[in-house]
Specification:
Layout lengths: L1 H105 L1
Main location: cytoplasm
Keywords: Cell projection, Cilium, Coiled coil, Flagellum
Subcellular location: Cytoplasm, Cytoskeleton, Flagellum axoneme
Length: 107
Amino acid sequence: MTDEIRNKHMEEKHGLHHTLQDKLEFYWKEFSNALKMYQENNQDRKLAFEELKDKDDVSAQEIDAQMRKLTRISEQIAQLKSKMASNAKECEERNRQLKEASVSFLV
């Protein structure tokens, strides 16, 4: 009787172990398939991301170069305005002197 019970339990245990093993293999295959699909689907996105990142780096460099160019042009404009103002003052002073000289010459 005890041998029968023991054998029955061993058979049940073996059956459960086999069932568990089958389920484990099934879920492992499901997981592997899901992982493969995820990697395939995201490979395109990863490549697109890398492409956009490279384009962003190029754009950032172009923006930096343009900003330096704008700064240089702004500085040149400021220098030219200063030079124009200086020339205007100088010409006004020369004109004033010429007027004074012409008035004193006429008198």
